Amino acid sequence: MAIDVLMIGLRSVVGAQGGVESHVRHLAGELDKLGLRVSVVVRTPYAAAGQTLAGTRVKIFRLWAPRSSSAEAFVHSFLSVLYAGVTRPHVVHIHAIGPSIVAPIARLLGLKVITTHHGEDYRREKWGAFARLILRCGEICQARFSHGLICVSKTLAARLSEKYGRTFSYIPNGVVEPEKLPFSAVLEELGLKAGKYLVTVSRLVPEKRHLDLIEAFSKVNIQGLKLVIVGTADHKSEYARQVIRAAEQTEGVVLAGFRKGAELQDLFEHSAVFALPSSHEGLPIALLEAMSYGCKVVVSDIPPHLDLELSEDNYHKMANPSDLAAKLVKQIAGDDNVKQDWSSKLQQFRWDIIALKCLEKYGEASPRIKMHRYSSRSSADNVKNEL
Hints:
The protein has 387 residues and is an alpha/beta fold. The chain folds into two domains: 205 residues, 3-Layer(aba) Sandwich (Rossmann fold), CATH 3.40.50; 159 residues, 3-Layer(aba) Sandwich (Rossmann fold). The protein contains 15 helices and 13 strands. A seven-stranded parallel sheet has the order 3-2-1-4-5-6-7, with helices on both faces. Strand 11, helix 10 and strand 12 form a beta-alpha-beta unit. Helix 1 crosses helix 14. About 2% of the residues have low confidence.
């Protein structure tokens, strides 16, 4: 049976940390609800055999990739596009600029290509000069060889459209409405009290600026307050070791490791403030998730965060721990019993709407993807009216 959409450019869709992984997991599920036959190619080091996307017909295909921060994305993307050349999906959807370097190969193989720009990865602090060059080449390949271009950041989409003279359609990351999961014992396990800790959720990579957050936390003189860092490093790195050392040397910092499901829900729900002092983002799903749980938030004043048009008190000057500390104190000083209602802000980030916007891009690239294929046509039409 033919594949409608084959997605490549990610590690895994089940149990993996990372914005692209979360994006594809939810997008694939929504497209499946609309009746599309979706397959996702993942990397063997991150995906155990026999994985499925629960409650969907989405196919997960594992391909080998080296466990190397510099080579795995390119090697896996190359193998993935060869796999696409054999399976002949109606559309290949490549996620992120690094994997998009194979877009010309996909075109040579006669494939219809859609790409999503998840952020200017060449600005990430972890990459050296050669890796940044390759990532810039990936962005150029996106712009020149894709049949359709998507970007998750409104500001970045406008800038890329002007830069390359082609339209990058703004289709953001999304967030699901929280579903109450069974109570977990994570707060007890980590020695936390509800409303008495700050939380951040991200991989341990330099652009997330955990060291700024730890320094800012050390300046917040509130008795009994803790800082919980949720997330791990995909690869061993000097930065991750620096974060661990700083956490060990700063009283009240808790390294929680990778958490998901009910544990992550409880860490969001019972936090005093969610913080994300990043220097670089596309549109962080962790921030949207925190907002969906009603968290108070403090984030850096970088364009993707500013696109959300939050209050001035929700933003701190990037790379300025003192300003971050001041904003954290201001948020904590509010009523501890009042959750923030972000529902009006989050309406535009519904996954069903996002899936239909992607569907339009697929239809523009491949006439073989038609509206009559959807198993829930009337539902699709209702959502489409909201676009």
